[in-house]
């Protein structure tokens, strides 16, 4: 179980009553992707595979590499040329092979899926890409984060702020909270807030444009490498439009790179938490969410911190 820390100084700074941060950086490879990697390696072993393949901006690759090493499996990580050097060093430290693929994530999702699926077949490897349209098992690992938050708080929070790329992390929270609500464990489903960088926001664009599906957004740009996505899943869009068990409408919002970097500074100097840009993105969105009246200042808020500062 990862820590749920009461962010007292940050709470006061933002003018909030209750602010908690769920610190996912204390896991094996330093990010929330370890949750999914545990499931992926279990599935690979049960299927008799001796190698796993994933595509990653860094964190998923490091998580797969670390857990594959513990299980005695080979690992290959497909990366974009712009992947952060620190994350590449980490992947190599676990003994995984790295394959650099130009334009890996800057292409439509269908083309991307076809490409990585072909590579996995050619290697006779288990495809452990962290996105439900490709792998339906891995997302189960992320649901545990929501279950832990409820257990640690003793109730559901009012608001959960989630840095969002492809959308699995957001969807996993929704499914877990709905399940707990239906079982009578909680009184309601929290308001979920999906946060994407301004330069990489296909999901937010779909919400704002009232689109029936998430469209491909080429050439994403942001300091948050883990959120530098050209596409998000339609399953995430469906979650944001689902009011099951909720007391407040789910939200999708963008955050500027400047606000992400400000959040990194505040988390470090106020709470002693060093986060990479992707990990701090949720906290970076807090000021605008509060100023715009989209979340109440007296709400019980949990921001998920997804990746350690030494990664990027």
Give me the secondary-structure topology.
Layout lengths: L3 E3 L1 H7 L3 E6 L9 H14 L4 E5 L3 H13 L2 E6 L5 H9 L3 E4 L8 H15 L2 E2 L11 H15 L5 E5 L4 H15 L8 E7 L4 H7 L25 H7 L10 E5 L1 H15 L5 H15 L8 E6 L7
Parallel strand pairs: 2-10, 3-4, 3-6, 4-5, 7-8, 7-10, 8-9
Antiparallel strand pairs: 1-2
Helix pairs in contact: 2-3, 2-6, 3-4, 6-7, 10-11
Gyration radius over CA: 18 Å
Average pLDDT number: 96
Report the CATH architecture of the largest domain: 3-Layer(aba) Sandwich
Give the tally of β-strands: 10
Count of helix runs = 11
The helical percent reads 40-55%
Number of domains: 2
Q: Characterize the biggest β-sheet.
A: 6 strands, mixed
What is the CATH topology descriptor of the largest domain? Answer: Rossmann fold
The order of strands across the largest sheet is 1-2-10-7-8-9
Instruction: Please report which band the strand proportion falls in: under 5%, 5-15%, 15-25%, 25-35%, 35-45% or over 45%.
Output: 15-25%
Which descriptor suits the 3D outline?
globular
What distance lies between the first and last C-alpha atoms, to the nearest angstrom?
24 Å
Q: Give the CATH class of the largest domain.
A: Alpha Beta
Classification by helices and strands: alpha/beta
Which regions contain 5 or more consecutive residues with pLDDT less than 50?
none
Order of helices and strands: EHEHEHEHEHEHEHEHHEHHE
GO molecular function, one term: L-serine ammonia-lyase activity
Pfam family, one: PALP
InterPro entries: Ser/Thr_Dehydratase, Ser/Thr_deHydtase_PyrdxlP-BS, TrpB-like_PALP, TrpB-like_PALP_sf
Protein name: Pyridoxal-phosphate dependent enzyme
